[in-house]
Amino acid sequence: MDIVDTFLNAEVMRRSLPMLLQGLWITLQLGAASIVAGLVLGLGLAMTRLYAVAPLRLLTRVYIDVFRSIPLLVLLIIIYYALPFVGIRLSPFLSAMTALTLVSGAYTAEIFRAGIEAIPKGQFEASAALGLGGLQTMKEVILPQAVKIVIPPLTNNSINVVKDTALASVVAMPDLLKQATQAQALAANPTPLIVAAAIYVAFLWPLVAAVSRMERRFAARRR
Amino acid sequence: MDGFVSIRNLRKSYGSFEALRGIDLDVAKGEVVCVIGPSGSGKSTLIRCINRLESFSPESEIRVDGIPVATGRALARVRAEVGMVFQSFNLFPHLTVRENVMLAPRKVRGTPRAEAAARADQLLSRVGIADQADKYPEHLSGGQQQRVAIARALAMDPQVMLFDEPTSALDPEMVGEVLDVMRDLARTGVTMIVVTHEMGFASQVADRVIFMDGGQIVEQGPPAQLLTHPVEQRTRNFLGAVLNH
């Protein structure tokens, strides 16, 4: 039995492909939903962290630190296996999305905060002097500039979220990895796992390359 | 009689350092006042208090057109009436020159886009840069950027214009074009309070010159008097140092 037949078996590949594509679809849905929800949560947390009254600011800092410390897998298992004991029963998809969003939101908050803090004080002052309110200043002046700065780190974070969706397979979510392990068991051949890995790479490599490109361009401009 | 801008007992401290130590000042409608003084004398802090970019001691009082410079609604009304030009321009880099001028009328006053654009073009030609309207600030010279900043402030039709060392960050050859715009503006009857090191501008344009030192107004008067026959020794020392270099 040679290596190609074991790891890249054409027949197994053909039979498992529909399953893998179903898994990929779920992975992409979970990734996209968690990224968007994480962005919204992160922006809200960043605003609270920067501008809310002192006790709320402190609370937000604690949140951000806790959710950056907790292993995602531990959080996911708590949400899926522990919350039912207090009557909260979430589907595998919602459990995974909740865990991914809570953690991604914490990271995103720090990214947004750094971006906002990088905007010169004069921009806030010019806005205030013109009579713009706090929200208008954020929306029209600060965020458009801050978002440009934080696109590379936000993309990095999104890549991590998509990679972390694979953890959802432990709560029986039929995502790409779960489908691959099942297809492997069915075919008694590891080819589906190799294909799944290739699919992850094919989707994320372009994003990784894009981040490197953006970071190079930003570094060049700063010189 | 209180001035259009009236300042009573203005005090401000940073920790134990007193930046402003009880300033009283009235500026009449249409008056052009130049504030001079050594760095650290509190002159920038003084004009930054007028639209409350700096907070000040609660015992102090500032009114613009009778409206107390406080917080919330009243502050928004004051800021809509008071334009400000900064040393470092502070244009919005993500907006074109025209959009810089249009932003506040559109968002604060709700002016329709077409109307705000027409008004912006009119103001830009008034400051002599109508042909740069579609460029981004980074592609303009410092003098041009500062003229855009003046147009941006004028777009809100302010009753009072504050200038915080508007030419200090400029290359020498660009100072003149900005001062020319300010001179034209002074002729239109806008109330102006100008913190500056440009003694020529102060002597030609100002109705009154104020000399500050150590957080206090040391001496004030018409430019011909204050700049040529100062009474106080501190004023003489400062003018001697400035004019002999």
Automatic annotation (TrEMBL), chain A:
Q: What protein family is recorded?
A: Belongs to the binding-protein-dependent transport system permease family. HisMQ subfamily.
Query: One GO molecular-function annotation for this sequence?
Result: transmembrane transporter activity
Protein's name according to its UniProt entry:
Glutamate/aspartate import permease protein GltK
**Is Methyltransferase one of the keywords UniProt gives this record?**
no
For biological process, the GO terms are: amino acid transport
Membrane topology designation: Multi-pass membrane protein
What does the function comment of this entry state? Part of the ABC transporter complex GltIJKL involved in glutamate and aspartate uptake. Probably responsible for the translocation of the substrate across the membrane.
Keyword terms, alphabetized? Amino-acid transport, Cell membrane, Membrane, Transmembrane, Transmembrane helix, Transport
- Entries under InterPro entries matching the protein: AA_ABC_transptr_permease_3TM, ArtM/GltK/GlnP/TcyL/YhdX-like, MetI-like, MetI-like_sf
Localization per Swiss-Prot or TrEMBL: Cell inner membrane; Cell membrane
Quaternary structure note:
The complex is composed of two ATP-binding proteins (GltL), two transmembrane proteins (GltJ and GltK) and a solute-binding protein (GltI).
Q: Which residues form the ABC transmembrane type-1 domain?
A: 24-212
TM spans, by residue? Answer: 20-45, 66-83, 193-212
Q: Where does the signal sequence lie? A: none
Entry's Gene Ontology cellular component terms: ATP-binding cassette (ABC) transporter complex
Look up keyword Cell membrane and say if it applies.
Answer: yes
Automatic annotation (TrEMBL), chain B:
- UniProt source species: Paracoccus sediminis
Task: State the source organism's domain of life.
Answer: Bacteria
* Claim: Glycosyltransferase is one of the keywords in the record: no
The record's InterPro entries line, in alphabetical order, gives: AAA+_ATPase, ABC_ATPase_HisP-typ, ABC_transporter-like_ATP-bd, ABC_transporter-like_CS, MetN_ABC_transporter-like, P-loop_NTPase
> Which Pfam families has this protein been placed in?
ABC_tran
Protein name (Swiss-Prot/TrEMBL): Amino acid ABC transporter ATP-binding protein
Membrane topology field: Peripheral membrane protein
Q: Which family does it belong to?
A: Belongs to the ABC transporter superfamily.
Q: Does the keyword Transport apply?
A: yes
Residue ranges constituting the ABC transporter domain according to the UniProt record: 5-239
The record's subcellular location field reads: Cell membrane
Gene3D superfamilies xref list: P-loop containing nucleotide triphosphate hydrolases (3.40.50.300)
Q: Which GO terms describe its molecular function?
A: ABC-type amino acid transporter activity; ATP binding; ATP hydrolysis activity
Identify the keywords attached in UniProt to this record, alphabetized.
Answer: Amino-acid transport, ATP-binding, Cell membrane, Membrane, Nucleotide-binding, Transport
Entry GO terms, CC: plasma membrane
Q: Which SMART domains match?
A: AAA
